Amino acid sequence: MEASSSQSAVESGGDHASTAGAGALERSEINSPFPQPKQRSLRVVYVLNDGLKAVQANSPESGALQCLQRACDAESAILATVTFGTLDFGETSVLDTFYDADIAVVDMSDVFRQPSLFYHLGVRESFDMANNVILYHDTDPDTAQSLKDMVSQKNTASSGNYYFIPYIMTPNNEYMCCENDAQRRASEYMQPNWDNLLGPLCLPLADRFISLIKDIHVTSCASYKDTLLNDIRKARDKYQGEELAKELTRIKLRIDNTEMLTQDIVMNLLFSYRDIQDYDAMVKLVETLEMLPTCDLANQHMIQFHYAFALNRRNSPGDREKALRVMLQVLQSCDHPAPDMFCLCGRIYKDIFLDSDCKDTKNRENAIQWYRKGFELQPTLYSGINLAVLLIVSGQQFESSMELRKIGVRLNSLLGRKGSLEKMNNYWDVGQFFTVGMLASDIPKAVQAAEKLFKLKPPVWYLRSVVQNLQLIQRFKKQNLEHSPQRERLNFWMDIIVEATKETTNGLRFPVLILEPTKIYQPSYVSINSEADEKNVSIWHVSPAETKGIHEWNFTATSIKGISISKFDERCCFLYVHDNSDDFQIYFSTECQCGR
Q1: d(C-alpha 135, C-alpha 30), whole Å
Q2: Which of 92, 307, 471, 476 could be disulfide-bonded to 286 (CB atoms 3.0-4.6 Å)?
Q3: Strand arrangement, sheet containing 103-107
Q4: What pLDDT was estimated at residue 201?
Q5: Residues of 196-210 as b/e, b for ≥16 C-beta within 10 angstroms?
Q6: What is the reported pLDDT for 532?
Q7: Exposure of 117 by Cβ count < 10 A (0-12 exposed, 13-18 middle, 19+ buried)?
Q8: Are strands 560-565 and 552-556 parallel, antiparallel or unpaired?
């Protein structure tokens, strides 16, 4: 998975029956011998643009969210929040929460995030989750009118229910919605203590939310489809790896007719297979759908996107060429392509280029073109990093390329929004921090990020993606070859991360981290000499911060009392040695190396 690109959904039209609510109302007026279905709480999801910082700060988004919370409390609705970053990244649990909510509320005040948000709203519509609310902090009349026109067009062209709610914050920190021109003109002349004047013209935002929630009626029904969806979600929480694959196979066997094959069930299966990197199962699922004569799910843009992604990752003969054909057809038929669609095309071309040992310059240029389109549509760390790396591979350098310098400025700005490295807990963010540090030749920043990345234990597929870009940077970017302790540490971190991507290892020299009594991770190497008359183990530190003390040890096999594996981290072992005051707590790259 190439992360954000590979794990996103695609916009496609939905089949929501607009008469469903009317039909339910008509049925309720008929006396029935059966009890009415019990009404469940409405599920509302709100997308935070700037994460928790925006909520904690005195920002318009914080006030709008508080209004929504008050409305949900008043109508006994359940409010969940997800961050834009995790939604755009495609985290499975976040996608599930967003796509499954009865009402999705997004704030489109940030114009750069509008393409991705519309893209995910379109996916909800294809799931028949048609109630989508678009908020806009009304600071620019032209942008507000543009959004209003777009929402009107969507309500006309599709069966979704899109609600556009522009809002303002008064000088007294009251939040009002101004949905018509008269309200907007009144709000433009706001002065302190004018809230009373606006009152008759503008509806409080919380009241508008309450009115909206009341208009949307949802009844719960323990349908077979809901049971299947819940079973898929429970399986994801309970199982991993091969066990999850077996459980998903059992669930698929229960789908005995095409009526149960709805898009949300298929996408949940695809998400689950993606999480365990079972790309072959993803491909076979979609190709099975294509063979069903009465099922057209396989033609949905979102499913085609994941099909192309899985083909590219499976990489059997002809897979990448087929993935490219699929994506180009999707882009031709999609009215509003999402940035991730362009980036997936870039990823496929990039992989074809890498398969040629970086000799296929035509596909390198194709990859640059598609990543550039994605970055221009919506600048992200993912598209920007890949674009910058490929431009460097093509021979450009930051010192002489205006485009590279502009990308670098944008990447630093995007990275700054993530906060400090110390507070990052998402391996995807830390890996991007590491790569940007390498692009900028900021060795201290790269070393700090590498250590943080190791502690987070990212999955191997992600490390391989990071390593791929890092090795391209090292190979094609002009490097300062001056030897220094920092450069030596950076080389160590490259060693330990590259080792973590290897499925098997036959070496006898391993990069390791030794946890010092001071709780500092000391970069080191362990070497095993099995050919000497008496087998021995050597350990030495890499560029230790303190020059005093012992930084190298040699132990014979007979001097080792024992070795035990940590119960908390399978990469860690404890080495106990005779006649040594301190034992060693050693972290290897992988569980396999530690076990050896």
Answers
A1: 38
A2: 307
A3: 78-83, 43-48, 103-107, 131-137, 161-169, 175-177, 203-204
A4: 56
A5: eebeeebbbbbebbb
A6: 67
A7: buried
A8: unpaired
Contacts of 209 (CB under 8 A, 6+ apart): 67, 68, 70, 71, 72
The label of the residue with tokens 């028949």 reads 128
The SS3 call for residue 421 is helix
User: Which contiguous run of DSSP H or E holds residue 466?
Assistant: helix 460-476
Alpha helical stretches, state H, 189-300:
195-198, 205-215, 224-238, 241-253, 263-275, 279-291
pLDDT tens column, 473-512: 999 988 777 778 888 999 999 999 999 998 777 777 899 9
Gap between the Cα atoms of 450 and 497, Å rounded: 8
Q: Are the C-beta atoms of residues 401 and 391 closer than 8 Å to each other?
A: yes
Question: Alpha-carbon distance 466 to 422, whole Å?
Answer: 20
- Do 383 and 341 form a contact (C-beta atoms < 8 A)? no
User: Mean pLDDT throughout 79-99?
Assistant: 89
Residue with tokens 């993803």: 282
**Segment 323-372, tens digit of pLDDT:** 999 999 999 998 888 899 999 999 999 999 999 999 999 999 999 999 99
What is the structure's pLDDT at 188?
46
Q: What is the pLDDT of residues 147-167, one digit of tens each?
A: 888 888 887 776 668 899 998
Report the DSSP beta bridge partners of residue 80.
45
Taking alpha carbons only, the member of 272, 267, 223 closest to residue 245 is: 272
232 contacts 268 by C-beta, under 8 angstroms? yes
167 bridge partner residues: 137, 177
The structure tokens listed for 494 are 């490259």
Q: Quick one: which H or E segment has residue 428?
A: helix 427-439
Run of H or E residues at 134 = strand 131-137
Structure tokens of 445? Answer: 């920043």
Residue 64 tokens read as 């709008």
* Dist CA 247 CA 571 (whole Å): 28
Q: Using an 8 Å Cβ cutoff, are 255 and 231 in contact?
A: no
Residue ranges of alpha helices (H) inside 29-113 are 51-56, 60-74, 84-89, 92-100
Q: Residue 38: pLDDT band by 50, 70, 90 thresholds?
A: very low
Q: Could you tell me how far CA 534 lies from the centroid of its own chain?
A: 51
User: Is the four-CA dihedral 181, 111, 152, 207 of positive or negative sign?
Assistant: negative
Closest CA to 290 of 258, 329, 252: 258
Single out the residue of 172, 163, 232 nearest to residue 197, CA to CA: 172
Q: Note the pTM of the prediction, 2 decimals.
A: 0.72
Residue 501: Cβ-neighbour burial (10 angstroms; 0-12, 13-18, 19+): middle
560-565 β-sheet, strand order: 552-556, 536-541, 521-529, 509-515, 584-587, 572-577, 560-565
Q: Which of 485, 399, 405, 497 is nearest to 444 (CA)?
A: 485
Residue type, 242: E
| Residue 557 DSSP one-character state | G
Q: How far is CA 571 from CA 509, 564, 567, 587, in A?
A: 16, 11, 10, 6
